[in-house]
Amino acid sequence: MIRDLWDGLPLWSQDLSSVLACLLPLLVVGLWLLRGFAPWPLVRAMLLRFRWTNALFVGLIAVSVGMGIGLIAQERGLRQGSARAADKFDLVVSAPGSEMTILLASVFLQPSDVPLLDGETYDRIARTETVEIAAPLAYGDSYNGAPVVGTIADFVTYLSDDRIEGRRWQAHDEAVIGARVDLAVGDSFTPAHGHGATAEEDAHDHSHFEVVGRLALTGTPWDRAILVPVEAVWEVHGLSNGHAPERQADHDPAEAHPGEHDHEDGHDPDHAQGHDEDPAGDHRDAATQDHEDARDPPEDHDHDDRHGDDHGAEPLGPPFDPAYFPGTPAVVVKAEALWANYALRDEFTEAGRSMAFFPATVLTQLYAVMGDVRQAMSILSAVTQVLVAAAVLTGLMILGRLFRRQIAMLRALGAPRRFVMAVVWSQASALLIAGTLLGVVLGVGATAGLSQILSARTDMLIRASLGWDEIRLAAIFLSVTSVLSLLPALSVLRAPISDGLRS
Amino acid sequence: MTLPLSIRDLSVPGADGPLLTLPALDLPAGALVGLRGPSGAGKTTFLHAIAGLRERATGTVLWGDIDLLACGAEARTRFRARHIGMIFQDFLLFDELGALPNASLTAMFRPRAERRALERRAQGLLDGLGLPRGDRAVASFSGGERQRVGIARALAADAPVLLADEPTASLHRAAAEALIEDLVRLTREAGRTMIAVSHDEALLARMDRVLTIEGGTLIADTSPDTGPVTGTGKMTEAGA
C-alpha cells in the first residue's frame, strides 16, 4: 500500500521527499538541540571571531562538495548530450566490425577506417518495405576542420526535421552545411582529402561545392558537418557514383523515385539486374505509383525541381545501382515504425556480410562503463569530502578550545549543556551549510564551464543543470557531517567548568 | 528573594592534597562579603565551590534549603541560572557583540516568555550604569565599560546571589572606584548577597565582612567596622 502511494506521487514529489529524507538527520539533530533556545547572536559572534579561518573552512567544503556535484552533473550532461546526438540514428547497418567504431564514425563523425558495406546489401536495405530512409554515409574529406559527409537529401531533411535555411541540394556540386560551419549560403569551397593536420588541401582541386542551405542547430556533431550528395564524394575520389552510366545518360525525373522498386515488383531480389533490360520504362511506371504514395519522400520532388533547373544529366540520390555502388561505411536506417527496427536489425545482421545495431544500445553499454568510472570517481570524491569534513571538524574542535573560557562562562552562568552544544553545533552547521550551498553553486558553475568546453570540442550540446541527484548528494553530505558536528559540540563539554574559567 | 549561605565540612580536593577545607561558615542573606588572601590561597576555588562548579567538592553548601553539592550537574546548572550571577576579572564578554546582547546573554537559554523581560532589565541596567546604547561591539569599549557590561550581565538575571572574582583588577583606579560604587549600590538596592574575591582594599572596605584565606583555609573573618565577627554568621576557622 505504501509502495502504491509512493508510486502514485508525481516524480518531483518523490525527489523532494527523498531529499527531505536525506536531510532528516540534520533536521532532527537541529530541532533537538535548538528547541527553546535562541543562540544566534552567540553563533554569529563565534563565526565572526575567526572569520578568515571559517571562510577557509567554507571554501574547503565548497570545493569538495562542488567536485562531487560537478562530477555527477557533468556525467549526466555528457550522457544526455551523446544520447541527443544519437537521437536520429535508430538503426545503423555497416560491414561487420566494431559497433563502437561505426557509432563514433557515423553518429559522432570521428574519422576512422572502417570496412565498406557493398551495394547489394544497401540495395536490399533500401528496398525493404518497412524502411523509410536508408541513408548511405561517405566520409573522408573535410573543409577547414569540418567533416564533409556524403549522404542523400532525405537524410538531410530527417536530420534537421526539415528546418533548413535555403534549400537542399539539387546537383552534385551543391552542399548543405551544419549550423556551426563557418560558411554562408552562397559560399563555395573545395574540400581537402582527409582530416586534421594530415589533410591534403589540394587533393580535390578540381572539385568545388556551392553552399545552398544551412541546417538548424541540432546540438550534435552534425552541426559542424558539411553535407554533400554521396555521389559527389564517390566521384571526387574517382569512384563510380552509384548509378549505371546508361541510366545517367537516359536519366528521367521519374527514375529518381527511391520507392519505385518496392511498389513495382514487391522486393524482387533480381530487380537490380532489371536496369540493364528496361530501366527507363521500369522506373517511369514506378514513378507514377510513387506520386500517389503517402511515403513518397520529398527528394522526389526535388529531383523534379532539379530537372527543371536543367540538371537532368546527374541522377541524384536513390535508387543506386548495386553494380555501380562503391560501398559505404554505414547506412543510417529510419524505419516506418519503431517496432520495425528490431526485425531490421535481425534481418541485416548477417555473419561476414553486414551488421546492424542500435546506437542507443551501444551508448547504453558505454554509459555502463561511464557509470563504473563515475562510481569510482564518486568514491574518490566522497573520500575527499569525508577528509575535508574531518579536517573541518578537527579545526572546529581546535577553535572550540579557543572559546573554552567563554564556554565555561556560559556554563557558569547557568547555560544547559544542550545550549552549549547547540551553539557549537550551530557554528559548525552554519559553516557546513554555507560550504555546501557554495559547493552546489561551484559545482554547477564548473559544470557549465566544462560543458561549454566539451561542447566546443565534441560539437555535442552538453547542458549543465542541477539535478535531484546532486541535491541528494549535497543533502546526504550535509546530514552526515552535521551529525558528526556533535563531536566538537560534545568535546567542549568535557572540560570541567572551573578549569575552563581559569584557563 | 535573598538566600543565606551555610557551609559545612567543605573540601575541594586537588592533585597534591586538598585545595580548600572549610569546616563551617554561615553568611546571612543580603550580606556583602569580601574574600582576600595571597595568590593561590584558594579564594577562587572557594568561589567556584559555592557556585557548584567544582565537581569533586565534598561537604555541604546550603543556599537557603538547597544543598548544591548534593545536586547533579544539570540541577546545579539550573540553580546557577536562577540564583547566581557571576562577574569575572577579565569580563569574559563576547567581543563581537554589542553591550545589550552581552548583558542579556542568559536570555538566550531562558524560556521564551522570560526573554523579553530579561532583555528589558539588561537594558535598564546598562542605562543605569551609563553605557551608551547602540550596536557597537564591546571590543571597542574601555575596561571600565566592559566590566559594567559584565555587571549588567550578572544582575540582568535578577539572581539573589552575586559572585565576583577580582571585579576591579583589570581597571585603573578611577574606573575601579566608579565600578565599586555601582556594584555596591546595585547589590544593596536589591538586597542581594554578594561574595567578592578581591585584592582591592577600596572594594573590601565597602563589604560587610571580609574573609581571609591562606593555604586553602580560612584564617580570619572580620568586619571593617567592628573587627572580628562572632555569633550569627560566624566563620569557623578552617582546621580548627
From TrEMBL, chain A:
Residue ranges annotated as coiled coil are none
InterPro entries in UniProt: ABC-4/HrtB_transporter, ABC3_permease_C
GO CC annotations? plasma membrane
Q: Mind listing the UniProt keywords for this protein, alphabetically?
A: Cell membrane, Membrane, Transmembrane, Transmembrane helix
- UniProt cross-references to Pfam families, sorted A to Z: FtsX
Q: Where is this region: Disordered?
A: 242-321
Q: Where in the cell is it found?
A: Cell membrane
> Per the database record, which ranges form the ABC3 transporter permease C-terminal domain?
380-495
Q: Where are the bilayer-spanning segments?
A: 16-34, 55-73, 379-399, 419-451, 471-493
Classify the source by domain of life: Bacteria
- Membrane topology per the record? Multi-pass membrane protein
Q: Where is the composition biased (Basic and acidic residues)?
A: 244-313
Please verify whether the record's keywords include Transmembrane helix. Answer: yes
Q: Record's PANTHER family?
A: ABC TRANSPORTER PERMEASE (PTHR43738:SF2), ABC TRANSPORTER, MEMBRANE PROTEIN (PTHR43738)
Record protein name field: FtsX-like permease family protein
TrEMBL record, chain B:
Q: Where is this region: Disordered?
A: 219-240
Alphabetical list of SUPFAM superfamilies matching this protein: P-loop containing nucleoside triphosphate hydrolases (SSF52540)
GO cellular component, alphabetical, reads:
plasma membrane
Domain ABC transporter spans what residues? Answer: 5-240
Annotated keywords? ATP-binding, Nucleotide-binding
The molecular function GO annotations come to:
ATP binding; ATP hydrolysis activity; transmembrane transporter activity
| UniProt similarity note | Belongs to the ABC transporter superfamily.
PANTHER family referenced in this protein's UniProt entry, alphabetically: IMPORT ATP-BINDING PROTEIN, LIPOPROTEIN-RELEASING SYSTEM ATP-BINDING PROTEIN LOLD
Q: What is this protein called?
A: Putative ABC transporter ATP-binding protein/MT1014
